[in-house]
Amino acid sequence: MGIRIIGVGKNLPERVVTNDEMSQYIDTDNEWILERTGIAQRHVATTEKSIDMAAAAAEEALEGIDKETIDLVIVATVTPDDITPSMAAQVKMAAGLPNAVAFDINAACSGFVYGLWIAESLMKGSAAGGSVTNGMKRALVIGTERMTRITNWVDRGTCILFGDGAGAAVLENDPDERGILSTFIKNYDDVNGVMKCKANYINPPFWEDDLTPQPLYMRGRAVFKFAVNAIDEVTRGALEKIGLTLDDVDWFVPHQANGRIIHAAAQKLGQPLEKFQISIKESANVSSATVPMALYDLESSGKLKKGDIIAVMGFGGGLCAAGAIIEW
Ligand code: COA
């Protein structure tokens, strides 16, 4: 019995902002951004909310699939439009999934891979609760982000990195397939506070501390170093669990945070860059959405064959990291 991926979807806002356009707002230029990050442009929301992008990606992933068979919706996001109802509850309603249990998770840029891990665990175990009584047949896992909403637009070291969008995958519990072969999840204490963003709420009359809204703060070099090591650790960890080697992997689909991070990780893993899906040039870092978006890009490229071994890897604030090995 295995939990395999049977559908993928992706949605991006229409508005594209090139590096040249970024240089109208901050002191930067196309060459610097492209060379240091591999990013040429990002999609930015002008009217699209996180739920709009999530619902659109979900619809595409669900094409041809009976919606009544979806038992679970997990949305990974650090930029939900609302605290309640959750993005997952709103996707369930928008997509018309009458039997799904729905909730959100926050594991920063690793969120989608954490979502795969949770869905796999629930689908393989004897799921209980809600309307599910006989184990879960199908699940929808989504990453959706409006990163431009929490980005510090006067910090040229961070605002150039992020964009908006959503990616989705439908999982199926299939007795004849292997699907997700292993997962490796790890949290590291962010003792130096290298990546953080305050939640911005209303100001109660009794609260005495500072409540000034604060955008995303990041110490780029420290995050870079963490990212390369984390990719290496979760990939090797997930492979080791099932006795596979790096050479057994056909495709690596890492979180798209910086092209140079992907290059450095490929080098550390001793694997050719051709095996890595790199989508960052067109859509930048979209936090939890980049892994499913990159998976979608790989699938759409036509390069992926049935039986291929894929390693997906996420890392991000928290600090957290996650890897999964999937047979396609
Ligand atoms: N345009 C032009 N110059 C810029 C710039 C920009 N957008 N951003 C920073 N600079 C300048 C700095 O001011 C600094 O100038 P100085 O030497 O005169 O002080 C110089 O470039 C080097 O800055 P530094 O921050 O050391 O650059 P870097 O090589 O580390 O690259 C990042 C910066 C952010 C691209 C890189 O550290 C990175 O990608 N880190 C990982 C971030 C990440 O992935 N976060 C998400 C994880 S989920």
Can you give a write-up of this model?
Helix 3 packs across helix 4 and helix 7 packs across helix 8. By secondary structure, this protein is α/β, with parallel strands linked by helices. About 2% of the residues have low confidence. It contains ten helices and 13 strands. Helix 4 links the parallel strand 4 and strand 5. 52% of the residues are buried.
In short:
By secondary structure, the protein is an alpha/beta fold.
Topology summary:
Blueprint: E1 2-11, E2 16-18, H1 19-22, H2 30-37, E3 41-43, H3 50-61, E4 70-76, H4 87-95, E5 101-105, H5 111-124, E6 138-146, H6 156-159, E7 164-174, E8 180-187, E9 195-196, E10 217-218, H7 220-241, E11 251-254, H8 259-269, H9 280-283, H10 290-300, E12 309-316, E13 320-327
Parallel strand pairs: 4-5, 4-6, 11-12
Antiparallel strand pairs: 1-7, 2-3, 6-7, 8-13, 9-10, 12-13
Bound molecules: coenzyme A (COA).
The site of coenzyme A (COA) has 21 residues, from α2, α6 and α7.
Strand order of the largest sheet: 1-7-6-4-5
Task: Profile the largest sheet.
Answer: 5 strands, mixed
Number of strands: 13
- Report, as a whole number of angstroms, the end-to-end distance: 14 Å
Estimate percent helicity: 25-40%
Shape: globular
Keywords:
alpha/beta, five-stranded mixed beta sheet, 13 strands, binds coenzyme A
